[in-house]
Amino acid sequence: MSYREGSVRSGVWKLRAASGDYFLKLHAELRKWHPEVYAYHNWVNAIRPSVPELVAVIEGEGYQGVLITALEGQPLRDRELPLAQVLAVYREAGELARRMHDSTVGSWFGVPRADGQPYGKSWDDPVAFMKAEFDFWCGKLLQPSSDLDERERALAHWMLDRLDVYAGECPIPIHRDYQPINWLVDEAGQFTGVIDFECMQWSLRIDPFFSLWSKHFRQTPGVEEAFCSGYGRNIALENPEQYRVFKVHVGLCTLQYGTALGDAQMLQTGHAMLREIMDDERR
To answer: Which of 9, 16, 88, 251 is the most buried (most CB within 10 A)?
Structure first.
């Protein structure tokens, strides 16, 4: 059975064998394959058994991938569950994230190769890392031809002037696509685990809140509180200035994604995020 049919991303196929079910994942980019392999050999140890097991690493001329065991369940995103069950999943996902984040500390920020060395550029300084992240994902928005209005442009410059809020942060293992599409639940709606580690890297503790805040915390009442309850920390309350700066970054990145993809809904969401931040600042 093929997943992600027609996608330019990594291809995924479900395989059935006498010994059980497996998934074959072939990565379109080495930049995705390397961190997934490194994660399975290193980072996921902290959250077993709530992850697939790596069966084989596949590497050849012009192709690369992994063969993993099948973890029971479907993505939470694809299920219609009562809110109480959704909140329970968010709490358990928060607990799992905290276990991984607290499991180890790195010496640089960036994407690891399968052998643990940096894939491309790495950064020792968290402020320089976050500036590079902004330049890569959102830099085009500061060009005069961008669709930012005057207030949004001023907010972007406000954010760039305050990147020192990240000073002192340590690199920890971060799943940058940590959200309901990659959280599995069984037929009874119980959380079974996490999948898809191709977007992992050494990053800041606040980083996985990117997808959660932009796509989920804003839309479903109670899920942010549930996740933070499981995580055992509330980043927004611990460091509200860092969280404000980060939310501007998220809003700007959403706008840039929308522009690049020609996605009107994403553009609308990005502008709405920035308006929310500006409205909060006026209160």
So the answer is: 251
Scanning the chain, the segments in alpha helix (DSSP H) are 30-41, 83-101, 126-138, 150-160, 209-212, 223-231, 235-238, 240-261, 264-282
Measured distance CA(134)–CA(257) in Å, rounded: 13
pLDDT tens digit sequence for 113-155: 999 999 999 999 999 999 999 998 888 888 888 888 899 999 9
* 39 and 122 part of one domain: no
Q: Looking at the 3D structure of the chain, how many domains does it have? A: 2
On whether both 98 and 59 belong to a single domain, the answer is: no
Q: What does the pLDDT look like over 77-89, one tens digit per residue?
A: 999 999 999 999 9
- The structure tokens listed for 3 are 């997943």
Q: Does residue 266 have a pLDDT over 60?
A: yes
- What amino acid occupies position 268? Q
Statement to judge: residues 87 and 59 lie in one domain: no
Q: Are strands 20-26 and 63-69 parallel, antiparallel or unpaired?
A: antiparallel
Q: Is the pLDDT of residue 62 over 80?
A: yes
Using alpha carbons only, how large is the chain's radius of gyration in Å? Answer: 19
Residue 109 sits in the same domain as residue 153: yes
